[in-house]
Amino acid sequence: MNRRRVAAVFVRIVAQFRRDPRTLALLFAAPIAIIALLGWVLSSSGTTTAHVAIVNASGNPAGDAIVLKLTTALQGQPRVEIASDVHDAATARQRLIDKQLDLVVTVPADFTIQNRKIEVTTLGLNPAGESGVLPAIQQALIGAVAQEAGAVLPTIERTSVYGSPDATQLDTLAPVVVGFFVYFFVFILTGISFLRERMGGTLERLMATPVSRGEIVMGYSLGFGFFATLQIALVLAFVIGRFDIPSLGPVPAFAIGLGVKTIGSPLIAYLLVLVLGLGAVSLGIFISTFARSEFQILQFIPIVIVPQGLLGGFFWPIDQLPSLLQPVARILPVTYAIDGLRQVMIAGADLTSSAVLLDLGVLAAIAAIFVVLAAATIRREVA
Hints:
Layout: H1 3-18, H2 21-45, E1 50-56, H3 61-75, E2 80-82, H4 89-97, E3 103-107, E4 117-122, H5 127-130, H6 134-145, E5 155-160, H7 169-199, H8 202-207, H9 213-240, E6 243-245, E7 254-256, H10 266-288, H11 294-299, H12 301-311, H13 326-329, H14 333-345, H15 354-382
Parallel strand pairs: 1-2, 1-3, 4-5
Antiparallel strand pairs: 3-4, 6-7
């Protein structure tokens, strides 16, 4: 092995990186920025105040006593706020649906000194995020009866307005996985494909014809959007459907598809993901203008995709993010796609739901904005 030749290759690589500030930024600045963002979110997610209502549905003195003790115990818990103006189950349930409450503790009608069952109800759209306050509730329940000699500790029965509190991680994460990964792969597909069109000279030749910039962008958007449509249909069919294959000789039985149950219409879920995918197509065309190679398209992933995974409701509810990041989260398309898919697949909402219509409208507006931006950048690229 010739040391001089190895050293020459080493010097060439160093010089190449030195002349590419974008790669250096990806190598050094991007990991620090993403880790800092993750640390910020994690450190702030535990400081969110949980809004809790305590309702006595038993109407007996034993229920009144436990409500009083539980209220006193919870008032001493950090980051727990008691909604003192909620006194019945119907009001509490509506407050949960309106997202004015995070959790409702109910003393059921059959509650007695001997039968100490307490119901804890959450909304059910994001079970992972909603379960954060449960340890404080359990601690308060234990403390509420700890002073009674021989008292039986209450049992907690968890319920939810939507879905099932016993839903698997696959059931609760399905809307998130569908929305986020479709957005990710459509963005990569479009960005790299459109970059090849520019690098191959196809786009420049099109600009020499009477075809306008807007027509070019719309044509490419429809072309890439067609394949994105097929991809979305395949992904949704795999997530929602399930086809069991019986054992064939030495091959054991297996299943194709995840078989995730959706309460709402799969067609509305498909519509949401489709509009999200079309927005990813427009974004990919726009971003490709700032890249000179396929590797540089990948460099935009930590800037464009990763923050949406951290802030779009993938792991934490938006209202549990730091206050400075919540406005950022509310302009990200993945935020609205995940919310809409949860409303449809878990809550069973349809097109009469104002929340679903808002999600669809915002996703369509974002896609239109990037179509305009993509058309504007094409002029700058070829001029």
